[in-house]
Write a structure and sequence with these properties.
single chain; mainly alpha; globular
């Protein structure tokens, strides 16, 4: 894969952006019968997710770079990933709790956000001793969530979105390999962890 394309894919599908993409899909693609949250207010949920899962963790990582705790935002060194991942996991957990504690939000919100938060903590724990691909965990988890949604709402017409997700997942994993950011083992392990976490959680919930 061309390195320029690989960089574009890595940025466009950065793990911090995946929750926003997933919630945009749930809020504006899934059948209206699945959600009770009013359509005219769904932008509030999406804005909340974007703020708490991208802006706040992004600012946290940038602050760590400015204070010398990180060499760069790319975090190439495994040992430098622990603090940003832990901070991100806390942000995601708080978001999931807010969705859970407020009855106005649909259960699917904290279910999906809980899976995402758990995937971050798994990435954090593995990163304590091995460099796993966060991009792959995120893409595997996103694909697993889409498959899970298809099991929960089989008449939602998710065949095309899942097919697109499969193609995008393959492209992002190839991009990480093309950039030599990870070994094949790190990429495939990340994908497997994210996918299995989402699928197992859905099976248990059902």
């Amino acid at each position: 894969m061309n390195r320029s394309l690989a960089k574009v894919l890595s940025v466009a599908f950065h793990p911090l952006l995946l929750p926003t993409y997933l919630f945009a899909f749930i809020l504006y693609y899934m059948p209206a019968s699945m959600l009770t949250f009013p359509m005219q207010s769904r932008w509030v949920v999406l804005g909340m997710v974007f703020l708490s899962t991208f802006i706040v963790p992004g600012i946290g990582a940038y602050t760590m770079v400015r204070t010398g705790r990180l060499d760069s935002l790319e975090m190439y060194r495994r040992e430098q990933r622990n603090m940003p991942l832990l901070f991100t996991g806390v942000c995601y957990t708080v978001t999931a709790y807010l969705f859970y504690s407020e009855e106005v939000f649909d259960a699917i919100f904290y279910f999906v956000m809980g899976i995402i938060a758990a995937s971050v903590f798994i990435t954090y724990l593995v990163s304590l001793f091995w460099k796993i691909s966060a991009h792959s965990v995120g893409m595997g988890g996103a694909l697993g969530i889409l498959v899970g949604l298809n099991m929960i709402v089989p008449d939602a017409g998710l065949f095309l979105p899942i097919a697109v997700a499969v193609v995008l997942t393959g492209a992002v994993l190839s991009a990480r390999l093309a950039l030599h950011a990870h070994t094949p083992e790190q990429v495939y392990a990340g994908f497997g962890c994210g996918l299995m976490l989402a699928l197992v959680t859905t099976f248990v919930a059902l």
